[in-house]
Input
Amino acid sequence: MKDLYDFAVLGAGPGGYTAALEAADLGLSVTVIEKDLVGGTCLNRGCIPTKAMLHACGEYRRMKNAEEYGIRIGRSASPEKEEDVLIDARVADGIDPEKLFSYRDGTVAVLRSGIEKRFRAGKIDLFRAEGTLTEDGLLLRHTDRKAPEGELPGEAFSDGDTIHARNILLAAGSEPSRLPVPGMDLPGVLTSDDLLSVRELPESIVIIGGGVIGCEFACLLSDLGISVTILEALPRILCNMDREISQSLRMVLKKRGVDIHAGITVSRIERSQDARMSCRYTEAEEEKTVTAQYILCAAGRRAVSAAFPALQQERGRILTDGNLMTSRTHVYAAGDLIPGIQLAHSAEAEGKFCARLAAADCGRPVGPDVCDRALIPSCIYTDPEIACVGQTEEEAAAAGIAAVTGKAVTGANARSVITKEERGFMKIVAEKETGRILGAQYMCARASDMIGEMTLAIANGLTVSDCLKAVRPHPTYEELLTDALESAARHGAGGLI
Output
């Protein structure tokens, strides 16, 4: 252990490990303290395993519908052998759960190993320990967890050892929230972490929460033929997003058999003698009950901020200034610990920002980049995908900005017709007078891969006219963007009509 590090990071999730790698690249001596798995929630229990499952389950659904394209999978082409069905709509016939979970877990392991190799290459000291912020630095304590075979073992230390550093970044992340509902602690009530640890495919599930987590799980589970019910307290699913996105996704999920109840109040969860779970709720002043094998509480995540009582906080989040510094000098915080959006790529941008500030403090002036947290795109990996950045038309109006919206639907897009995509669209919101791009809302195939163009446009103050100068290839999903921009121009963005 070094006497003094330039940069110490508590937490090896997206914000922490990205910051550590950036600081090492800038020539700083760096250490990371992580009590669990490198990669944090995102890599091990969040973004990556769920997206791997979404990919696999989406492929299964498409295979079941392959006859739409004239392709018969797992069947004899000969009519007299129609009984030789190897893949059909039944989960038991079409899915090998162990191979499915092995694919998911293998994907995670490959990515985690890659981070650890980069730690070695960057000469970053990893301490597999509980870390506590003290006046002197970061106090280390051993945990019961041992690094699995093949993982970076971590540096040796003794309980009570303290990491001293010029600059400290707190990136301890968040954990699933549980609602204060009677029965929420019963066996069979799962968080998203728990569900990803279950080594079986449930036959039915009730999802409490129609936000991003709930909708992604509803999508992948329904693709497997599992009975899914969503219970949402707000008036609609994805209530904080563009209303048309919410309405369209509801229609897509209902078409796939998902039962959705919004504007409800959950009152109690019970477990019967046959181990089935019952959820009681009120809808339109009527008491109702839904029963399933499992109940998933997808009510968001809460910051792991209780471990830092000495720092100024508000509503369970650590407060920071414009440079992400906490109420204590040279101690920064990033990611889910601080107010704002809880997304991995937001944490990564914030972590790199803090690393550059630390480098400047250590005499390596790198000119810290501006971290504009208002320009973080949000992506939801349902099918179709959803991606948004900037303002909606309603938000622009609330801010006193005269704005227009341009819209293009997937039904008129050649690539979408070829691939038989579900209903979807692209929307562009622009300031009416100048044509400046204010926001974009996508619901279509590959939305998450395309939203970056509008993020760049907003960050650089580009107008509808500027963006229409680019010719987009045909046939592609991206042509929807040209159509949406032209629609905005026809509606008067920048005085183009």
Remarks:
- The first strand starts at residue 5 and ends at 10.
